[in-house]
């Protein structure tokens, strides 16, 4: 009986840990103040950006160059003064997602192994009773 309660607690804990890992692993875009100084300070080459210009055009691209007054994708440049809203996600975030996916995968395998071991222990204990 005691082992069954332990098993339920272990399963609950594993589900909680898996849920926490899944919900905290993704990084979303972050808003940057649409001012030249803030954009120069907070943007890096390789960042993925979403931009809405003052004339309402929407752009999404990877930054390949940053100059004093503008930023560039592989195909166009946008002057900082033309930006109404900008959001960015750093290049390293993608690598972190891959690492998190492997971590979650190994965590699930480990949890399944642990759950199997606990189940086996409970079964063996029940046979002994």
Overall CATH architecture = Roll
- DSSP strand count: 7
Helix/strand/pairing category: alpha+beta
Rounded mean pLDDT score: 80
Task: Write structural notes for this entry.
This protein has 129 residues and is α+β, with helices and mostly antiparallel strands. It has a single domain, classed as SH3 type barrels, CATH 2.30.30. The protein has helices at 2-24, 36-42, 91-128; strands at 30-32, 48-53, 58-62, 65-66, 70-72, 77-79, 83-89. It has a 4-stranded antiparallel sheet. Strands 4-5-6 form a 3-stranded antiparallel sheet, with no helix packed on it. The longest helix has 38 residues, at 91-128. It is rod-shaped.
Produce a short descriptive summary.
The protein is of the alpha+beta class.
Topology, element by element:
Blueprint: H1 2-24, E1 30-32, H2 36-42, E2 48-53, E3 58-62, E4 65-66, E5 70-72, E6 77-79, E7 83-89, H3 91-128
Antiparallel strand pairs: 1-7, 2-3, 2-7, 4-5, 5-6
Helix pairs in contact: 1-3
Descriptive labels:
alpha+beta, 4-stranded antiparallel beta sheet, rod-shaped, 129 residues, SH3 type barrels
